[in-house]
Structures are given as C-alpha cells and as structure tokens.
Amino acid sequence: MLQWFIEIDKNVFLYLNSINSPAWDNIMWWVTKTETWIPLHIALLAYIIYKERPYRFIFTILFVALVVTLCDQIAVHIRNLVERPRPSHNPEFADLIHLVFNHKKGKLYTGGAFGFVSAHAANVFGVATFLSNQFKHFRWSLLLFAWAAIVAYSRIYLGVHYPLDIICGALLGALLGLLCYMLKVRTVVYVERRIDEYKLKKRSSFL
Hints:
By secondary structure, the protein is mostly helical. The chain has eight helices and no strands.
C-alpha cells in the first residue's frame, strides 16, 4: 500500500514538473528565494506594528521567529530520520525531470540530499497559519496562503521536492503555526495580567 502511494506521488511529481517553460524557469527561480519576499516581510512587519498595542507586536515578532525556527529544525530532523532522496538526487529520475538551472550540480536551494519533509513548505505555511490567526482578516489570510502555496509549488517546479514532501511540510507548518499562536495568546495574557497586578500593587502602596 505504501509503495503504491509513493508511486502515485512520483507520477504526480513528474506530471507537474513537466509543465514548464523558459519564462517560468526564471519566475520560479526567484519565487523560491527568501530574499525575493523581503518587501512582503517588511509590509507584514509594518502591519503588525500598526495593529498591535505598543508592546504586543514584540511578542508577535518573537513567536513568528519561533515558528520558523521550529519548522526548520523539525523538518531537518524528519529528513534525517526518513532519508527519502529528493527527486533531484534520485538516479532513476536523472533524464526525466526538469531541473531549473541545474539544481543538482549547482546545489543551490536544495538543502541536502533528502527532501521529506519540505522545510520551505513548513516555514511558509507555519508563518501563514500564525499570522492569519493573528490578523483575523480575510484578505490578509488569502494573501498569506497564496504566497505560501506559490513558494511551496516552486519546489516541485524546480525538481527538488515531491508533492508529498510539500503536503506534509505544509501540514507540519500549519500545526506548529497554530500551536505557537495559541502559546503566544496565553503568554500575552499572562504577561499583561502580571503587569496589571504590579500596577495595582504599586498604586495601592501610595494610598
């Protein structure tokens, strides 16, 4: 059963990876790079600071960083346990897949020989899930998940991840994003309660 599922995953990958063109090669090459999205990151940071109370945005930024760290590190540990080679490192696909700008030899954006699960997918879906819960705004949520989906798909296009790598990475990211958001809410409530207690105690000492 597992082997049958893996074969489907490979076939879907080959189909999706075969849909390409020189123009899309350049687009997807830039889509997959983190620095391409710096303007979006700046816009998100500005929106967080604008929407949050004077100090609450600090918690949001810290927990977003925690989401990315957890997604990245857990994805690496899963890869080392599963040891499923990337399509770009699979000898049976040597003449079948479309490797943009020869990822296999250039070793750019491959992240090593193993690909299950995708750290890219985990990171972007983790951030998208966290911030969509944080903003609770339909348009921002739509933008965030569209961004996550495009970045995740670029990994298949470039020939470095199977669809299952992406799907499981996205699920991992969504779970961690939700857990970190819930932890952030509890942390803010606790800190604000302690601050209010301190202010009340300080005020009563002057009476």
